[in-house]
Amino acid sequence: MAPDDAAIAPLRAAGFAGPYALAIVTGTGLGALVEAVTDRVSLDYAAIPGFPAPGVSGHGGRLHRGRLSGRPVLVFEGRTHAYETGNAAAMRVPLAAARALGAARLLLTNAAGSLRPEIGPGRLVMLADHINLSGLNPLIGEPSDARFVPMTEAYDPGLRAHLSAAAEETGLPLPAGVYAWFSGPSFETPAEVRMAGILGADLVGMSTVPETILARFLGMPVAAISVVTNLAAGIAGGDPHHAETKAVAARAGADLARLAAGFVGRLPEA
Ligand code: HPA
Question: Domain limits at 102?
Answer without folding.
Answer: 3-265
